[in-house]
Amino acid sequence: MAVLGFHLVVTLIALTIFSKIKVRYSFCHLFVLRGLYYFMPPTLGELRQAVDHKFNEKRRKKNVNPTEPFNVPKDTPIRLLKLPLSAIHLDGVPFFDTLTFVVDYLVFALIVFSISETFVYFFPENRDTNVSIVWLLIAAAFMLQALAKLTASNIGSPELTEERNLILSFFAVTFLFCVIFTMSCDKYMDVHFTEGYKNFTKIVGTFLKEQRLYNVASYETKSPILLYVVLSTMCSSVAAMLLFPIIRYTTMYGKAVKEVGKFLQLALHLTFLLPVVALVLYTNAVRDHLLLSGRYPYLNETRLDALRLAIILIWVLARFLTAKYHLQSFLNTAEEKIIELQKETGHIKSDKLQRLVIQYAQYFCAAALQYFVPVLLTLTVALLLKNLGDIDFIRQEKPDTPELTLEDVEDPNSLASLKILLNFRSQKAFWTYSLINLLIVNTSLSVFGRIFSYNFSNSV
């Protein structure tokens, strides 16, 4: 362990366990599927019995194929079979492999992160590279990949022109707002974006000079307009991919509130509003009120940063604890559709009726990804901010440990020199900026989706 370092040893052990356990067991059953049930449509034979007791005589006379679809009166009483949801039922369902891999990998990433943070707390003078950062970055990459797959399913089909146009239009609008926000975020939000940019470019310039790249070492004097465009493109792309997932969550939220008791309704409402609280705490007005008014002497800059991240962690935990009610409300839509169908007149094809019921179970994995990925992506960015931004929940006064500088590195081509680029003074601004963007997207789309679904349900 002394040769490899504690963090690397933990990573190797975690990778070994992960590769062995993921083929035998998935945490998806424990954290996602447990306690859920879905509805199975009646068979063709059951539908025939429900439609007409004399259908068998007519079939013998007309020599009807028993597997051929037939018309079913919409007001026919239909019984749906309720079954517990398990991985066996979802095997082969679209996005099932993506869902299980994202959940399993994130569980191990959080375990590695927790162990590494515990070690750093007891041994703050240790300078080994914290490999849990790599775990979190890869977890964020997997979640972005899952969002990309979900978005591709919405825009790839030629029949989904409205969804494709909506995503592209939302990307264009959010790009404009992201450019404006990036250029003026320091006026309204506690980001210190300009200071972080200058600090980072200074470090990179020194690093490039050590590499004897003098032609590009002075780029820190250039205008940051290219950085504004790159960050705005990145954030607007993520926002466009989060459009349908967050609207899906608001639909689940609206249905779940109607299906639970008063206490759980309060819990669902608080879960819905927690990202708004976290976002408000990042505004300069609230920061100045809390730190400069003198009313809260026990609150300082470090504790305020910890409070913001703590609220985000509470929000993530609340979303996990209430996931069962949200996801079950989505699966219950099959029963609601049958009840609405029975109030109509006319006929429906038997195969179409079966698809009407089973489609929600077949789309469950995509709906689960839409529910979990936005909040898990925010959690990952928050943990990266906690680590790279040097934010501590417990220890408010940091030990007097000197930071690593380029003068301390004997070999400028070594990995240690690259660690200079991860200086928390320059990293904190970037990850705070990314976290605030995710909170803005979650908050704005959640409010918009709730208003839209409320007005739509009242107009129907």
The dominant shape is elongated
Total beta strands: 4
- Structural class comes to mainly alpha
Enumerate how many helices there are, as a single number.
20
| Arithmetic mean of pLDDT | 84
Trace the largest sheet across and list its strands: 1-3
Provide the low-confidence segments as ranges: 408-412
What count of domains describes the coordinates? 1
Assess the beta-strand content as a share of residues: under 5%
Cα radius of gyration in angstroms: 27 Å
Q: What can be said about the biggest beta sheet?
A: 2 strands, antiparallel
User: What separation lies between the terminal Cα atoms?
Assistant: 65 Å
SSE string? HHEHHEEHHHHHHHHHHHHEHHHH
Helical content band: 55-70%
Features:
single chain; 460 residues; mainly alpha; two-stranded antiparallel ribbon; two-stranded antiparallel sheet; 20 helices; 70% helix; 3% strand; elongated
Describe this structure in words.
The chain is elongated, with a radius of gyration of 27 Å. It is mostly helical and 460 residues long. The termini are far apart. It has 20 helices and 4 strands. A two-stranded antiparallel sheet has the order 1-3. A two-stranded antiparallel sheet has the order 2-4. It has one domain (29-41, 80-94, 158-459). The model is unreliable at 408-412 (pLDDT under 50). The longest helix is centred in the C-terminal third of the chain and has 36 residues, at 424-459.
